[in-house]
Amino acid sequence: MQKANEDRRTLCSETPFFQFATNCLFCGCAVDLSAGQFKGFEFFQVRTTELDASIKSVCAARQDEWAADVFRRLCLVSDLHAADTVYHQVCSSNFRTMKLIPSQFSGGATEPDTKKRRVGRPSDDIKYEAFLKVTSYLADNDQEQITVKHLVDKMQSFLPSDTEAYSIKYMKSKLLEHFQGEIVVMVL
User: Fold this and answer.
1) Separation between Cα atoms, residue 187 and residue 148, nearest integer Å
2) Model-level pTM?
3) Residue 9 in this model has a pLDDT that exceeds 80
4) Got the DSSP string for the chain?
5) How far apart are CA 94 and CA 100, in angstroms?
6) Are 28 and 92 in contact (CB under 8 A)?
7) Which pLDDT value is given to residue 133?
8) pLDDT tens track for 164-185
9) How far is 71 from 54, CA to CA, in rounded Å?
């Protein structure tokens, strides 16, 4: 008996109010018509009657929850152009290329973390801890002249055998960054 409740379809009356002239056909979010097309997210008004059939064919190909939502909206109106329907360009593009709803319009659903790229060099905590030990060693032996190569070798001694220490060039830049002018590195 409980299974019947889980399979029950959502009624149009249960979904938030949707207006074709102010809400994106694809994501359902409000389109800021006063901002203009190039401030914020680019949007377009439906101008052809062929778009309805095109979107329905994409819905049939996608067969996911987003496609079902869009298809339900399409069934509410017979002519998208006459209803002054608007949509975000990025939503249309993502919908047609089988991607997810853009994160800024999804309300939390985003692409898997494996697809997110972080900017810059990835941090390596093991190497950083070894580098901090090298800086402590250098601070303890501040009266000596030590080569950067010696510090790289020292860092390697703090790392597991399968992990490489920083290169000489990178070690030099990290030392200058860490000590912020309190260290002199001479080039021979």
Assistant:
1) 10
2) 0.48
3) no
4) -HHHHHTPPPPGGGSPP--TTTBBTTT-PBP-GGG-TTSSS-EEE---SHHHHHHHHHHHHH-SHHHHHHHHHHHT-S-TTTTT-EEEHHHHHHHHTT-PPPHHHHTS----GGG---SSSPP-HHHHHHHHHHHHHHHHTTTS---HHHHHHHHHHHS-TTSPPPPHHHHHHHHHHHHTTS------
5) 6
6) no
7) 93
8) 999 999 988 888 888 887 777 7
9) 11
Tokens (6 digits) for 136 = 């402590």
Give me the phi and psi of 45, to 5 degrees please. -100, 145
Decide the pairing of beta strands 86-88 and 43-45: antiparallel
Q: What is the pLDDT of residues 61-104, one digit of tens each?
A: 988 988 888 899 888 888 888 888 888 888 888 898 888 888 77
- Side-chain-facing half-sphere of 94: CA atoms under 13 Å: 21
Of the candidates 184, 178, 179, the residue with the CA atom closest to the CA atom of residue 128: 178
User: Looking at the predicted structure, is the pLDDT value of residue 108 above 70?
Assistant: no
Q: Structural domain boundaries of the chain?
A: 13-111, 125-179
